[in-house]
Amino acid sequence: MFCKKFKNVSKEKPKIIRYEFRIKTKSGKWKWILGRGNVVSYHSTGKALRFLGTHVDISQQKEAEEKLEKLARIDSLTGCFNRGYGLELLDRQIKLSHRSKSPLLLAFLDIDGFKAINDNFGHDEGDKVLKEVVKLFKSTLREIDIICRMGGDEFLLIFPENSLKDAPLIRERLNKNLTKLNHSLNKPYKIELSIGLSEYNPDNSQPMDELIRIADERMYEEKKNKK
Fold first, then answer.
1. Three-class SS state of 184
2. Which DSSP state fits 191?
3. How many C-beta atoms lie closer than 10 Å to residue 12's C-beta?
4. What does the alpha-carbon distance between residue 194 and residue 178 come to, in Å, rounded to a whole number?
5. CA-based end-to-end distance of the chain
6. Chain centroid, CA 163 distance in Å
7. Which of 75, 112, 153, 216 is catalytic?
8. In terms of Cα–Cα distance, which of 153, 109, 116, 115 is closest to 131?
């Protein structure tokens, strides 16, 4: 491992090299290793010839870093992506859609009467509803689709390579599974969703904020029409 890392080191580069890599143990478990090497002599060509180095197991440190990184991306209550990371993923998907000339569908949703559920049955019950809704999304959407909790009872769903033409089928699947969910929960209330949709078209592109605004506005129009 040291030889591979040091073979291109020359006198013009730092003599002390620090790098990280993974190794697989005999038990099949992967470990993270921190390597440090100090070049002690060079070939006449100027390349590293001899060196001394150490290896340190940093697996626990890496695991802690990965947990912190995950916490920074995940909504702690529902387990889906949080607002910050969700917007980051949306930005990436828009750029990917632009490069590949493929459409991108956005859905902005919230739970109808969620405040009433909290007021009448308590916030613990409201939390359960949020978790059930995310389970509904995960059981209905494809693996490549993205689920984000934007805050409160509002969610953003991102559908790569889908357009508004696919919206009726997506709505049908959500409604079908939502009916099953309400039947299985058998609560004194029904979970209902309002949905607003917008589409990123690479041939007539709009900024991310505008796409979210359109979907959000359409969601509230649908909610208003239910009253």
1. helix
2. -
3. 6
4. 12
5. 67
6. 21
7. 153
8. 153
Helix pair angle (123-140, 167-185), 10° resolution = 130
pLDDT tens-digit profile, the chain (227 residues): 444 554 555 455 556 677 777 888 888 888 888 877 777 676 677 676 666 777 788 778 777 777 666 667 899 999 999 999 999 999 999 999 999 999 999 999 999 999 999 999 999 999 999 999 999 999 999 999 999 999 999 999 999 999 999 999 999 999 999 999 999 999 999 999 999 999 999 988 889 999 999 999 999 999 998 87
* Strands annotated E in 123-175: 146-151, 154-160
CA distances from 198 to 27, 117, 158, 165 (A): 50, 28, 10, 11
- Strands 30-42, 16-24: pairing is antiparallel
- Give the angle 50-55-58 at the CA atoms, nearest 5°: 150
Residue 57 falls in the annotated catalytic set: no
DSSP state of 10: B
> Do the Cβ atoms of 145 and 132 come closer than 8 Å?
no
73 and 92 Cβ atoms separated by less than 8 Å: no
Q: 14: burial class by Cβ within 10 Å (0-12, 13-18, 19+)?
A: exposed
Backbone angles phi, psi at 65, to 5 degrees: -65, -40
Structure tokens at 196: 């607003």
How many residues appear in the chain?
227
8-state DSSP, 166:
G
For the chain, state the CA radius of gyration. Answer: 25
